[in-house]
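Weekly structure sync - notes
Attendees: PM, LS, DV (DV joined late)
Agenda: review two folding runs queued last week.

Item 1: First target. Sequence and structure tokens pasted below for the record.
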Amino acid sequence: MARRPLTRKWNPLIHKKVKDYLKAAKVRSRLSRSLIPNGLTMPDPNAIVIGGAKKMDAAILFFDLESFTKISATLSTEQTLALLNFVIPSVMHVVRHWGGFFEKNTGDGVMAILGTETKDRSIIAQEAIECAMAIRYVTENEVQPMLASVGLPHINFRVGIDLGEVLIGRIGIHSHNFLSVVGTIANLACKLQGLARSNGICIGDSLVRCLNPYLQIHAELGEHPDWAWQYTHTGQAYNYYHFNLDWPEPLEWFRRGFINQPTF
């Protein structure tokens, strides 16, 4: 049986989880600055064994807030913190729902690893694009309206994703270490995020080739003078694409059940 282009992971449960988080975050954002304690030291992270790495196929996703430096310059530090606490955890909830892991938080964005539980690139690609679509939906339909309701400015975002072989390992010293992704695909995903349109998803050729044909038709070829990547062995241009498909309202999608050709 052919694998369907999209799954039922997009559903009212993850939508509700993000909405519930945002409601709680809205209450917390009302706390006065006096409740934020001063501190001199960073919390000690759990000690883990350091060394070694795992080679695998995975999708790397970068999420970033557009023009964050410029916008945050117009806000107080408390407002900036409140804005980040609405946006970033909402994205993290979505990534977790799709089984993703976080390589790092960049302050105004995240880098995530998706598809680490399978070697099937078509499944990795599907999970990555579904996750990106869900990030776009909850950010546009839940996070941005919530920001407006508490008097915070509208802020756009960009998502970049690619798929390929990476090394994932722990780097650092005892009690101060981090998960790191090494590979060309991670570099490409970061650059793709920078090429994405406002509130857009930008994806690499490797990921597009692994998508279901129904999803491939929603990938619009991108062009930029600074993009000159090529396949190493062939010298053929390594293209990038703007992905233009959106999830419908989650309950509507859930009611449709499993279908071979979803209509949006």
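Item 2: Second target, run right after the first with the same settings.
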Amino acid sequence: MPLTKSRRPRLPTSRCHTRCAHRRPRHAAKESQTLARSSTTLGKSRTKIRCYYPMLNNLRLVATARPGDGLVGAIRLLPRWGKMQSSWPKRLWIVRHGESAGNVARDAAHAAGASRIFIEERDVDVPLSERGQEQARALGDWFAANREPERPNIVLTSPYVRARSTAALAAERGGFQSTRCHRVIDERLREREFGVLDRLTSAGIAELFPEQAEARRVMGKFYHRPPGGESWCDVILRLRSMLDTIGLHYGGCNVLIVAHQVVVLCLRYLIENLTEEEILAIDARGDVVNCGVTEYGFDPDAGPDGALKLIAYNVTAPLRDAGAPVTAAPDAPVAAR
């Protein structure tokens, strides 16, 4: 009799993770929204299932199935039998870049009463000023004062030169873990795009685009989107997927984000589940300082599955400890963030 292949049903692979193949049963209940990672038979009486929940803040879940349930039945039982494990980072720092040449140019334009901010480079190519370089080194010294395991081992930066240079100078001072630090440039952390209002002062906007000045006054800066630019909501939309990536890949890590002022504020809005009024009130109290540190720690007792809790916001300790200047000018492209 010829040998025949086993008719064991195949489970299609879902491409939801780069490091392992999750498998979705064809007949699993839609409401469970789970993807089975693996199954292990434990004797004759039970099966251990590891799953990934894409719809529930990237939570992983482990469950033990009862006899006769099979793989599909076990997955249906996961919400009742499983124990969830959070994939938030152990520690998260969010830092605004050091002072840039654009910040200096903006101050000069306002002092002269000019309508435009004069910068030769593209906004993405604007470098750090000398003070910004000093601030970045002070940031690295501040992180280096911690024990090796307490320093960042994942560094995510905006592609803008001023953010990348801040991270590079901090690394040169030994601010990150030396043996296993992973550095990634991510365009979702870029500065807010200002469109037609790029490189205009407040006076310049009122002079050249009075209708946009009025629209911003009526709608508020949280929702106002200049032609060709972004509102705060647009920035928040791309940062939502950024946080999903962090939860999927960097759970339990020490993560440092080096980006821009609006990014710092919008991440606070998302992580702390703030309202428009609450985040604008925080913004109204003062600018995020260059190389100021916002810090979160994972609290397993916060809510049913744990959460990131704010430890400090806009801290200038790295600069004060090193005697570096503290600067807080808004980024250059436009005065009204």
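Discussion on item 2: Confidence is low (pLDDT under 50) at residues 8-45, 52-65, 71-84, 333-337.
Action: LS to circulate a short write-up before next sync.
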